[in-house]
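User: Show me an example of a complex going from sequences to structure tokens.

Assistant: Sure. Here are the input components:
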Amino acid sequence: MTSTETHHAAGAASSSDAPAIAAWLTTADHKQVGRLFIGTGLFGLLGGLVLAVLVASERIDAEGFQLLDSGSATQVLSAARLLLTFGAVAPLVMGLAVAIVPLQLGSRSIAFPRVAASGFWMWLTGLTLSVVAIIGNGGPSGGESEMVDLYLAASVVMVLGLAMAALSIAVTGLTSRTPGMGLLRAPFFSWSSFVGSIALLMSLPVFIGTSVYLYVDHRYARAAFGGNFGVNNWVGWAISQPFTYVLAIPILGFVLDAVPVLGRTRLAQRPAANVAVGLVSVAIFASLTHRAVTLPWDGDGFFSGLGTKIADLLPFGLVNVIPLLGLLGVLGLTLLTLKSAKPMLAAPLPFAVLGLLMILLGATSHLLYTVEDAALGGTIFEAGSYVAVTFGTVLLAFGGLTYWGPKLWGRRIPDKAALPLALLGFVATALGSLSYMIAGFADQPAGVVDGFAYSGPQELWNVITTGAFALMLLVSLAFVGLAVRSFTAGEAAGDDPWDGTTLEWATSSPPPADNFSDLIVVGSEYPLADIKNSGKVG
Amino acid sequence: MLTLPPSPQPAPKRQVFVGTALVSAAATMLVGGMLAIWSQFRADAPFRESPRRGPIKDWMPKDIVVPEVAANMMLIAFFVVCVMAQWAVWSAKRNDRQHAGMALGMTLLMGLATLNAQLFIWSQMGVDVRGGAFNSMFYAITGVMTFLVIAGLVYTAVATFRYLGRGNSDVPTLSAHALYWYFLTVAFTAVWFVVYVQK
């Protein structure tokens, strides 16, 4: 049973009277902060993909450098991962969470809105300075000492900003739900954003602490952590699997929310979905190990010494297997839901299913990578897993933008234009990741772009990867162009374009500064469906 | 029901307290992660012969002496801060503004005492930050701890002004403030044991 109560206009702070730029700079409106994260995240994505294309094309001919040189190659490699992970995936996912979670929870604002806004500016400042440091030959393995220091300090600022945004989201989930909405009754995107934010709050401080050690040691002593070459040994886990799953956790909720709505059905086994998302968050233990947790399989001898293998199996299972089980659970529930669905032909649906499949491909391949007897350590196979998880998360974020874009901008992206992008993005991700994986099986080394030889058809796989990354870049460019055109001059979306069941669709598109004019008391997991069924609103 | 009288949205449930709890949990991971790396380096260090204690880990340079009295006093001061912060909550709940204000003032004073003790320890130890792994890591971990204490002092100042300005309606903020000092005390106890006692 769901009811609504009218109330006086809320007094949420609005900066609409300020000049446009000042309003953006000083805004504490969570929707604007979310848009800022998303907009800059899209820029970061394009920058990261340009560098990824550059790196992949440099690998085609390993005899000598074509586009880069020995000094810049390592820096471009570092910058590509930094931009794709912390410049694209993190802000796209966090931006959607900051903008949408308060709306889903029926809250007038995000908790600590100025903390969230400050988090955005800190993240942006840290990311910009990190990129500047890398350009100045800083970054991991960089040659300019001062620039390496700058990179370490800037990465702390960047990660602190993300942690502040995560804090706002987590506190919103715990304290700002509308009456009647328990945490397990919250929409899945809110649940997964809450779980993902807690996971980030528990793991990002480990990154910060380690970076402080690295900074002090690199600046003054160079006695403990291997100087500039040791940076990735100690904090490289933050741009690799399984930590990349942690960044993807919030957007898993988009799949679980959007698939039932677009399939005109209800999600099968709701509690299981909550558990599955929670299982993925176990990947935060990767932050405590500082490096990939591998399993020495040792062929038949593995079972003879089982007692001594427990110490290997426990961390391996915790960091690599349990998150994969969580992802499998999310996929299983999605497919189970689709089995009884009559899905509408809407762009968010293929983005959701195909993006999730790619993340699962990345997680499964990472499991194989960490079994030592597969002998994939040190090969480019790891980059294949990374591409699958990262591009898969980007596809989910694109899906989230097509699904919730109407709520944030009041206009919608045409399905006919977005559907091909979902399919092309899937093809690019699959080709890019699988060809790196095959090259990994043929022992192509990781972390270098030149001066290597391996047993496979080198040019073929690296040409395919380059083409796939270029295709992903074109897809992203097309999506950004489509989004800008649609959200500025597209078709008006209406308040509830998907016939949704959760509270974000109960307010106008875009919502007013204080989100809701009515207090909504919810009585089930599908409050808007209850309202529609009772005929009280709309 | 659209005909019901207007009602405001209920106030968020203990937002400052929950936020402080999460910040404390995150900061626990920060300090815990740093202590774990410290312990790993110490465990990996080779053994050397000590005339007084036999074979010991060759981790802390021989010429460095930890001023244990100052470190112990610092630990005690943290526990006193907790008592003061909780006294402020206890008094505020009983509408005793005088005692609450005095307790907050004492919290600030004792917090400053911990900061003073840390400065004294740095000054007495005279560790050269360029002198090796122990040295740089010592400044990194105690520096982070000091940063967290300064954040606590700012929190105390803000809580004091809010309480004096708003009165007893701000008890939840004082509870959250006390929680942060509890966290600092636990965190420093761990730092004290690993860095100053175990060395």
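The lines above are the inputs; the final block is the predicted structure for all two components together. The radius of gyration of chain A is 23 Å.
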